Structures are given as C-alpha cells and as structure tokens.
C-alpha cells in the first residue's frame, strides 16, 4: 500500500469541492488524460466518472467508481485502467491549523499490475501520487484564493 500525505492550505470544504467535481479529475490525477462523462450523482456510492488514461494519441477509455463516501472527510475509489488493472484509492481529509491534511492511500487490486512486486510498485505509486496531491493542492488553493477576492 502506497501512502502519501500533503497539507493543502485551505479548508476541507474547498478541497472536497475539487474532489466532488468529477470534470476536474484529469487536472489533478496523474495519468488521466481526459473526461468523457461524469454521472450526475458523483461522488455518491456507486457513481462513476468515465475517463481516458495514457498519452495522446494512445489512450484507453475506462472509469472510476465510488466505493465509499463521507463528504468533506473521505472518498474511496476503484480506479480502472485496463489492461494494467485496477487500484483502490482512498483520500482522507483532516482539518489542521494550516488547512487540510490529505492522506492518499493506493494499491493495485486486480490485473497484471498486481504481479509487480510491492517493493517495486509502491515507490512508483508514491511518486505519482505525490504529484497528484500537489496538483490537487494547486486547484483547491487557487480556487479558494479566487473566491476570497
């Protein structure tokens, strides 16, 4: 299991607003190339966003499904990107004096990527998720700054 933590300098509500806008997914998730559809009830349990992964022009269409949701606190997703496989991703939001601590946990749950040994795949996932959390922070903090003007 890969585990990353990042402190975002805004409130959990504002971080959640980015997570709850499925159309923003490819702006902060490394590897997501474009959005094709966001179901109306996103991010309720069972809802999906339909995205593409890869680098254009070689992209694969797949989806991400909400497994668990506690608004402003926790979001657990099953991200699909076949043929490599699927991963469970959990985002936990905690208010801290500096803003919001976001903890991101991820591991492969299905597909050929499962056979990559954990000591090899965990650092790669950690590296990718560090950048994803950095992008999430940029979005949440900049949107918050615009709203405060």
UniProtKB/TrEMBL annotation:
Gene3D superfamilies referenced in this protein's UniProt entry, alphabetically: 3.30.530.20
Transmembrane region(s): none
Any Pfam family the entry gives: Polyketide_cyc2
SUPFAM superfamilies per the UniProt record, alphabetical: Bet v1-like (SSF55961)
Protein name (record): SRPBCC family protein
Species this chain originates from: Nocardioides koreensis
């Amino acid at each position: 299991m890969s585990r990353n933590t990042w402190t975002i300098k805004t409130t959990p509500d504002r971080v959640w607003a980015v997570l709850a806008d499925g159309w923003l997914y490819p702006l902060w998730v490394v590897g997501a190339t474009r959005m094709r559809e966001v179901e109306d009830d996103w991010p309720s349990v069972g809802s999906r966003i339909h995205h593409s992964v890869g680098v254009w022009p070689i992209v694969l269409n797949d989806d991400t499904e909400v497994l668990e949701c506690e608004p402003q606190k926790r979001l657990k997703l099953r991200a699909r990107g076949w043929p490599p496989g699927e991963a469970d991703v959990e985002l936990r939001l905690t208010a801290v004096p500096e803003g919001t601590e976001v903890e991101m946990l991820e591991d492969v749950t299905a597909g050929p990527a499962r056979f990559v040994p954990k000591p090899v795949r965990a650092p790669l996932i950690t590296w990718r998720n560090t950048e994803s959390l950095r992008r999430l922070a940029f979005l949440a903090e900049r949107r918050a700054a615009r709203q405060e003007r």
